[in-house]
Amino acid sequence: MYATRPEARPATVEVSVDGVAVMVPVGASAAAAVLLAGAAAIRETAVSGAPRLPYCMMGVCFDCLAEVDGAPNVQACMVTVAAGMRIARQAGARDALLGEAPR
Predict the structure, then answer these.
(1) What pLDDT, in 10s, does the model give residues 11-31?
(2) pLDDT of residue 25
(3) Predicted pLDDT of residue 103
(4) Which of 2, 47, 48, 74 is in Cβ range 3.0-4.6 Å of 68 for a Cys bridge?
């Protein structure tokens, strides 16, 4: 019904969410990119494997933990997207210090 004026459209950057290219507004968080990508989940809980998506979007709940550019345990809601950023699902528990899967 109403069209957005071209000058009112935000600039975008391309990021990858689980290998899928997504155009995200400049200044958005990596968690917002996950939601824009329509991902079913961005992580699984360590105990039950339950799927999780970003929830609070302000760094309180830790449901948005993801691998960002290869670094595990990143709160995606606290990271601003950058062109070429790679955001990937984090499955299961990770070692808090080394960022490696437990053995």
Answers:
(1) 999 999 999 999 999 999 999
(2) 95
(3) 45
(4) 74
The answer to whether residues 29 and 57 touch, using CB atoms and an 8 Å cutoff, is yes
Return the biggest CA–CA distance within the chain. 56
In CATH, 12-88 is 1.10.760.10: no
Give Cα 87 distance to the centre of its chain.
Answer: 5
Rounded Cα distance, 52 and 39, in Å: 10
- pTM score over 0.90: no
Three-state secondary structure readout of 1-66? CCCCCHHHCCCEEEEEECCEEEEEECCCEHHHHHHHHCCCCCEECCCCCCEECCCCCCCCCCCCEE
